Amino acid sequence: MGVEDKDFIMRQIKQLGEGLGEFLGKEDVDKILNFSEDAQKETQDSLAEKKLKRKQEQKTKTKPQ
Q: Any alpha helices (H) in 1-65, and if so which ranges?
């Protein structure tokens, strides 16, 4: 990719960012920027809940009655 192509792409990204900045407030921008971190945390929490549930199910299955 040539330098001109990279410059064009960077200009487009800058224009997109400026356009979004006009429509979104600071809180919205913060949410967007932190979306990846929040999604990752939710995934980890979900996996931890599934593991805990699985352990509890195994305990109830192996528990003599």
A: 3-23, 26-62
